[in-house]
Amino acid sequence: MSAVLLLNADFTPLKTLSWQHSVGLVVRDQAMVVDTVPGRRVRSARLELPWPAVIALRRYVPVRPVPGPTRHNVLLRDGHRCAYCGLSHTELEPGEVLTMDHVVPRSRAVRGKVVDHEGRSIDVNGWRNVVAACPPCNHRKAARTPEEAHMTLRVTPRIPRPAELWAKGRVPASWRPYLAKTAA
Ligand SMILES: [Zn+2]
Predict the structure, then answer these.
(1) I need a surface site. Which of 4, 42, 96, 173 has the fewest CB within 10 A?
(2) The model's pTM
(3) Contact, 34 vs 15, CB < 8 A?
(4) Ligand 1 center to 92 CA (angstroms)
(5) Rounded to whole angstroms, how far apart are CA atoms 140 and 7?
(6) How far is the CA of 101 from the centre of ligand 1 (A)?
């Protein structure tokens, strides 16, 4: 794992970077090293410094990236469990994987929008309309809403914060204190 966690100047997580990009920011004094990979150092003809694990920007930037609802990210948000029956990915039949279900079916979309059960207009492919589903539940639900299929959502599909997704994924131990800051 050589990716580096980039923190904002207030130490809230922003995104991950390559170590090369990170060293560039540190060398140009745009970022400082907050935590390092023990026992490793970056060496070149002109510089030597500890191998960064976590760096922080010197100046605060107000932007917060919103991660997209890719299958990987949706499974992270939903804890790798089916949003309908609660089955974990480890409990699926051999060869089966969790799928992405559109809560309001894509066939109902008008110009990329659907109306959710509370009457709100939401993006058909957005965070609030996609959940993790096991193949049997996805098959059973088919092109229906949960209400029409008499199925209950165990979770409310919502937009997660970036750090919340990272905190649920496989990340270096040195990142965890910083992710915990905003993942609560
Ligand atoms: Zn299921």
Answers:
(1) 173
(2) 0.66
(3) no
(4) 9
(5) 43
(6) 10
